[in-house]
Amino acid sequence: MLLNLIFTNTHFHCHFCVSSSYQNFPFLLCPCRRLLLLISKPLTNLKPIQSQAPSFTFSPKPKTPTTWSISSALISSNTIPILPILHTEVKALLPHLGTQEVSRVLLRCQSDSSTALSFFNWVKNDLGLRPSTQNYCIVVHTLAWSRKFSQAMKFLCELVELVKDDLPSEDVFKILVLCTEDFNWDPVVFDMLVKAYLRMGQVREGLRSFRKMLRVGFVPTVTASNCLLNGLLKLNCTDRCWEVYEEMERFGIGPNLYTFNILTHVLCKDGDTGKVNKFLEKMEEEGFDPDIVTYNTLISSYCRKGRLDDAFYLYKIMYRRGVVPDLVSYTALMNGLCKEGRVREAHQLFHRMVHRGLNPDIVTYNTLIHSYCKEGKMQESRSLLHDMIWNGISLDSFTCWVLVEGYGKEGKLLSALNLVVELQRFGVSISQDIYCYLIAALCQENRPFAAKNLLERMTRDGHKPELEIYNELINSFCRCDCIAEALRLKTEMVDKEIKPNLVTYGAVIDCLSGLGRSMEGESLVGEMFASGMLPDLAICRALFNGYCRENDIDKAQSLLSFFAKEFQIHDTESFNALIRITGGKGDITRSLEIQDMMLKMGLLPNPLTCKYAIDGLWKARRVDSASLVK
Fold this sequence. Notes:
Number of strands: 0
Low-confidence stretches: 1-69, 77-81
Helix content: 55-70%
């Protein structure tokens, strides 16, 4: 129908060309009609690319009419901007446009990267066709040849991710190589492929591509080699780092200072600092003097291993060689001193650093503050904190945490709370972890009302309390016999859609039973059961002990029977206590009934059962003897 409209209506034009001169010459075709006519011709007569062929035959017949016509239409200046507009108009023709045809059109547009890019994006984004690996490779070659490297890298990253997720059998490197036989290309593409793999976190694929380059005769640049070394180092593949370095030497890829710095890091990560001096000598033989990165890498490694003498030796050597230590150098040395408990010396080094014009950062301050807190020297830590704020350095969560924890370990919770208030006054955000730590600490000191106030402050700050915090508070209130507050918190939990668990119910039931309100506690068992939770042995004992304290022996016995029948909780200890109580009252008949109940449930009497039964019989006999004497 669309084609009939085009051929029969000589006045048909898209809205893009309505006002153009084409209206004055009806026998001429506007770019829209020309493109529609070109791509409406069947494309099935194009010869498909043979996958087993050594190279891609994009145009086996150089003048395949349809491919030639499409390309010519695309290259015309007025056609590219209207490609998205034509989407709906060519919908019926899309089945004829496959990835092989896309490759042929891209091949003909290789001299005009803007045209190729526009067509590729139109196919991919507007038509919704998924380009093949080959389509991607052609576009990447075209863009790289036109020195549009950032766009080429974007498509390479997109391609390697696509292959990883959906086309694991595709060999991107091989297809890139095969594409080079039909048009202009730049070897930098293969360097970019290695970097793309590394950028997308596919380090092992990057290593494979690096080695494939060497096998086919492409020599990677030192930049690509360094990227690969760095990626392998991050994965702790130190052996692979040395293999890559050997391949660099074998194929004449000259290392630079960055290469040596990475390998210095590899040596330190290997723990083989003994080889460092030899490696540094080799580095100098190659004409590279160690720079600040080299020294910082070595100093950090020596400090981690406790070799402070070697670290400070390098620190002095740096000055002699004209390399001025920076903030990283000083922070590493301070960290090494603090690990050995030499915090005062670290603080002196800190002052020396400031005197030499270096401004400490958050890491430097945190190193000292953490060490002072570990030693319980909170005054010094607080002084450094004020120094940070005065110098305009924003505190991070670690700074706040170590200070609060330091006060907590010293048993100075009030100071920790005052610190939180002070930090908030300075606009510092307090993390949920700090609030939770302080609430739990207050609860352990049986100060639940202070903890609840802190919970409210935490909620106002936008944090959402979790189940564990509510349980801490409820437990604390229950230990203080403040059952009303505990029940209010339980209701608040439910209102906030936080489901109480066994710990919550256990604390409340135990408190109610201890306050002589065992019936209320037992009603909570029904609530638990209704919510899909089963009571445990601790809840059973809490209720049993509550009824016993209330001197309701019948209810206590009934409870044990109920828990055994409904929840399969058989508590020999509670049965023994019941025998002891009834025996102590001289009620031998009930004592024997309870023993019989135990046997029916499959509970064997233990030595305590026998002892309490004998004590009961003995007491009953004495009572009988006393009554006979009277």
